[in-house]
Amino acid sequence: MPATETTEDLAARPAEDIPDRLFWTRRFSLTTRILAVNVLIVALLAGGLFFLDTYRKQLIAERFKLARSEVEIIGNALAEAPSSEHAALLARIGAEQELRLRTFGALGRLQTDSFVVGEPSFTFAEDSDDAFSARVAQWMDRTVDFLVGAPPVPPYYPAADRPDINNPATKPEFPEIFVAEQAGSGTVMLRYAPDRTPVITAAAPYGPQGETLLSVRNASDITQSVRAARQTLLVLLALSILASVQLSLFLARTIVQPLRMLARAAARVRLGRDREVVVPRLPERGDEIGMLARALSDMTSALREKIDAGEAFAADVSHELKNPLASLRSALETMDNIDDPELRAQLLDLAHQDVRRIDRLITEIADASRVDAELSRATFVPVDLFALAEGVLGGRTAASRIGEERHLSFEVESAPTSATMVMGDPARLERVVENLVDNAASFSPPEGRVVIRFAERADMVEMTVTDDGPGVAPENRERIFERFHSDRPGDEHFGKHSGLGLAIARSIVRGHDGTLEVQGRDDGESGAVMAIVLPALNPE
Predict the structure, then answer these.
(1) Which of 33, 65, 80, 324 could form a disulfide bond with 354, CB atoms 3.0-4.6 angstroms apart?
(2) CATH of the domain at 504
(3) Residue range of the domain that includes 245
(4) Residue 323 resides in a domain
(5) Number of domains forming the structure of the chain
(6) Rounded distance between C-alpha atoms, residue 495 and residue 502, angstroms
(7) Tell me: the pLDDT tens digits for 240-262?
(8) 330 is a domain residue
């Protein structure tokens, strides 16, 4: 939903147009959801740790190919060189290539070791000498191996004088020399040194007497590069998590705190403990939270107006019913003490008028109280106001009876056009026209005119009911729409009108998203103009 959508636009949308696809998150608070989403994104960054493990495996695979090629090339060089030069050749190649080269005879018996005939080209770090950072790095290595399900790797023992190397009766330390001898080609194996650096050993046969060459490479550069990248990634990951949590908490505060403030205000309104509780409108926020705040504020104001109107209506009903009831009771009580038939007839006629007034009041009160509820359930259909007005003037209404008595004329002046089509409840709109025509007729002088006109105003339809009566003073133009307000002509009998007609008409028009106002005549003549403005029917 765009942030520019107004509360009116949102209210116009059906509830089914706003799906709840996140029903599974209802049990979690909004703060938890925000944190989870942001931390989840950071967790994707943590997946880089497993990518580094893949990178390490690729490096080791490349070193396997290199180790096999190296051992076969060195083996060929040994096969071509005299045996007296083997020790010097192994020492020189081992020093240049940072390898430990050993030759084995039949049954795996050690013959020559480049670390013995020459200087060692590398050393292994002992596990007990590792610093704390190295231990953490080794723990990370084991953790990643466990998480990715890496197969176990045998350990490498740096000592050169292990008994099982020179003792054919025991299991050899380097089984790959026998695998290479039996296969007749080079073979490679991976081991871990005490500091968990990879040690790549490669064996290849090279002599006619079954000799085997074994190379050992300490691939510490692989471990160093992978651990350095992992350490950098961990630092970035820690900073990202810290920033993500802080930003999530900030975002949660900007969302959750206003919502809690609105919830507390709504609870106070519901409990009715504070009549003047103010629901914050948050005008500085142009997002959905601000829209919600303003919608709640408007709803609270409308609710208060409804409550106030209901209380005032109940008080007015009580007051209006007391007058005819008091008059009726007085007439009935007086009749018992009156013997004059003519006076008794007058009292009886007065009682009948009071009964009719009470009946009219009850009918109008019931109608007024049902307007809003019935309009909220009504199904609006296209309505032609021109045809509706003609139907009202042609029917038997109170206005037609008044018109016959005073010789009034009624007419619809404008021709029917598409500009008179609106969406609404035909019965209710007909009631509005009847009330306005009846009101105009009751104020019109003898031989006066009641004219209904139509005008097109952009996407609105304006209908006016004009009479030749005394008009309405500007200071009274809002009061005439108040319930039970009645300022009738002097020649009309008391109680003939309830004072609810115009109030009901305005409620119906407002229920159709329109306005009803009283104006003065533009031609300067005496009279009132009741103007109704309703949204025009959308041709789409």
Answers:
(1) 324
(2) 3.30.565.10
(3) 7-46+231-277
(4) no
(5) 3
(6) 16
(7) 778 777 777 777 777 777 888 88
(8) no
Q: How far is CA 470 from CA 133, 145, 285, 445, 526, in A?
A: 99, 98, 50, 9, 6
Nearest alpha-carbon partner for 450 in 469, 432, 431, 463? 469
> What pTM was computed for the model?
0.47
53 and 39 within one domain: no
- Classify residue 311: in a domain, yes or no: no
Round to whole Å and give the CA distance between 59 and 11: 62
Residue type, 372: D
pLDDT bracket for residue 479 (50, 70, 90) = confident
Q: Per mean pLDDT, which range of 123-127, 293-297, 531-535 is the poorest?
A: 123-127
Give the SS3 label for residue 12.
Answer: helix
Smallest CA-to-CA distance from 392 within 164, 189, 384 is with: 384
* Cβ–Cβ < 8 Å for 492, 442: yes
- Top pLDDT among 350 and 92 is at 92
d(CA 483, CA 499): 6
Phi (first) and psi of residue 471, to 5 degrees: 80, 180
In the chain, the amino acid numbered 146 is F
- Are residue 154 and residue 81 in the same domain, yes or no? yes
pLDDT at 518 > cutoff 60 = yes
